[in-house]
User: What shape does this take?
Amino acid sequence: CIASERAQEMVSFKSGADALYTIARNEVQAQLESRPKPRPRHAASVEEEERRENLAADAYRIVQSKLRVLSKGLEPPPVVQDFVLRLVAPWLMEMCQRHGHDSPEMKDCFDFAVNLFSTLEPSADENEHQSKVRARKKLLERIALEILSTHSLDKEVIVLLEQMTEYFDELNSHHSVGLIRQRRPQASLTSYLDRLEVIRAST
Assistant: This one.
């Protein structure tokens, strides 16, 4: 029956989230071990430092502007705000500095952000709902893997991922659950993005 299938889907989602960190860590560790060790580098010149500072500032402006557009009309709860500010946005800024804002890699990253905000909204029917359940799981797997590729999976990151998993569990409970986008949104709804900090790409 539909209820039984939904229950199995929810159990599968939760189990997948629990195993997410181990799977991602193992995969990224294997990738890192296969890469050649970087050679020691001399201190960056003043010009190079200025170039990197400018790249970071540009990435900040581009990413913050994009996130304002995507979240316009939505009132995300604190768990979503923290997820965006401390995981998603820093990753987007790093990728923007590494590949450029108009690169295929950055387009893929922005598609990720589009999908993220889309999954926060209710579904029109059960078919769309099941599609979003699967999309939410893939989003968590993707961001965990991306973070692990350049940073360690520390306690703070794990907590944020676990909290977002729990929030997604709530959205997965029924197709009508989600954030309603306001037709005449107030600017204050996206003011949480003012707390976004500039991130320089790691070397």
Notes: The first helix runs from residue 2 to 34. The chain has six helices and no strands.
